[in-house]
Structure formats: structure tokens, C-alpha cells
Amino acid sequence: MLFPELADTTAHVHCFQAEEKERISSFLAHDDRNSALICGDTERVLSCLPECLFQTCVTSPPYWSLRDYSIPGQIGLEDSVADYIDHLVRVFAEVRRVMRNDGTLWLNIGDSYTSGGRTWRATDKKNPIRAMNVRPPTPDGLKSKDLIGVPWLLAFALQREGWYLRADIIWNKPNCQPESVKDRPTRCHEYLFLFSKSEHYHYDSGAVRGPNGRNLRTVWDVHTKPYQGAHFATFPPELIEPCISLSSQPQDLVLDPFIGSGTTGIVALKLKRRFVGIELNPAYLQIAEDRLNGELIR
Question: Is this model's pTM higher than 0.85 or not?
Fold first, then answer.
């Protein structure tokens, strides 16, 4: 059991292995205060969960050809961008199955450039983590230096699979990382797509308002906030909070099939929701556990 120091609070969070499917289902059904962290391959874990369980999903999968997380079965280093898209389509088919009929998916995804034939990524003095010893080849039909358009390739693929594509939100990063490029502008945005499972879905437009009380706009200015305990990109809470507030109610279950450092879980609990987070890498799941412990005992 995680977080024994929370015994006197309303949050009950347990950690499971993917093989414990019966315990996971029983735990989530037993008490409307229960949340879970699950270690395992997200597609396989989701296939073991019952249908129509989650109200909303807020997630950011590994981006294609940008990071090597050094874990067997990782998403993002497929030989082709088509294989990467197909892999994610299968994952989100399971997400759609376990989602309530009036549920939503908030999907943050970044783009990448072609490798130009290189099988590695050089060290960037301004951003050393970008260096990679392995890199997928340039996709067929594209040229050296082409922007691939990964977010829209994925969005259209999910749309074809039955998801309703409802909004493309621009996450503008006022404090974006510098880039050592001289022949194009520095990228300072990513996409956050809103999908729904059905034509009609839960969306409380009054839960989050824009400037002067207006309807929320599709450009969100959110500063990045790296977590020192993680060497990979982390979701800023300010990006997640509107998604959960708009698309769920207290005690609803929130899903993040790529929980990473646990930010979605932290935000869900603070907003009085429950959550299930899935993570392939045991080391990253430990980071999520540590963060949840540190945040929730304050």
C-alpha cells in the first residue's frame, strides 16, 4: 500500500503490478475514495480493466523520436512514424473502451523533425537531454529538415477510429526552452487535443472561464515547470487543472495511461477526483509515488 501516512485522509492510493488485474478491479470498485498506480504496459493493463470506468483521460504519451527512456517496450522509438501512430491508436482504442459514454480525452502531443538520415541526435548545450544514441530514420516521403506533423497525424488517425475531435488547443510556453537553430523560429508551443467518445459528453463550461468571464479560448499560456526528481518532461499542473475541472465532477475517475512523474494524479486528488495512473518504467512509478507522498502530506 502506498501512502500509509494518509490513513486519516480521504485519499486511498495503492500501487499494483499489471498482473494483479482482479485486485485492481476490486480495489477501484470497493470504495469511491480509491486511486491506483499500476506498473506495466499500458495497452495490456487497459485491456484488463472493465468498460465505462473513467469519466476523463488526461495524458501526454512519449513523443516520437525525441527521447530514449531506456526501457523495453517503450513507445516513441518505433522504426517509423506510422508504426508509432498505430501503436498509440491501439492504446487509445482501449482508453475509449474503458471510458464512460459521456467521457473525454485530453491529449497533449508534441511534434518533431526528420532526422536527415542520422541515427543519433547531437548534444545541445542549451538542452543536453535532447542527445540520443539511437534515432528512427526519416519517414518515407519526407525530406531532411521536414516538420513531420505528428500531432495532426495522430489526431486524424484517432478521428478515423471513432473519436470525436472537438478542439485543438495551443499550449503556448512563455518560458520555452531555447533551441540552437538559425534557420527557423524557436518552437514555443505544443498541441492539446480534446476528443470525446460520443457526440454528447460531459463538459462544464462554467468550471473554467477565460478573461473577463468569457468562454475559455483555445490558446493557453502555461509556463513549463520541470520537476527536479525527473530527467524527462513533466506535465505542468496548470495545464491539467482546466481539463479535469471542465470534464469531470468530484469522485469521478480520471485516467492517465502514461502517468510519468504523477502530476495528473496529484491534480486529480487536489480537485477531489480519483485517478488511475499507468507507467511502464518502475523507476518513474517510484518518482510518482515519491511526489504523491510529498504533495499530499503537506
Answer: yes
